[in-house]
Fold Transposase.
Amino acid sequence: MESMGKKRSRPRRVFTAEFKAEIVELCQRGDRTVGQVAKDFDLTETAVRAWVKQAELDTGTRSDGLSRDEKAELARLRQENRRLREDVDILKRATAFFAKETR
């Protein structure tokens, strides 16, 4: 009675890049739909669609998102930006401290 209407969540699984590439290749061949491939390999259709989309972004056949390289660069730039903001904040505090000391 406790599980009526509630679907158990499946444990999070990790897949290798090679496995994802094989699944994407099967989907892109065109002989099976994304749904069929997902069902055959016990995957969620959403995950398979995301893998196909990312592969298309990486190869340049799709342009409505960021490729893996662009995502990595964006993450690096955000980290650098955060570090630089912290540096500026420290310098502002030091300037205020020394300005107060010299008066």
About this structure: Residues 4 and 10 are 17 Å apart (CA to CA).
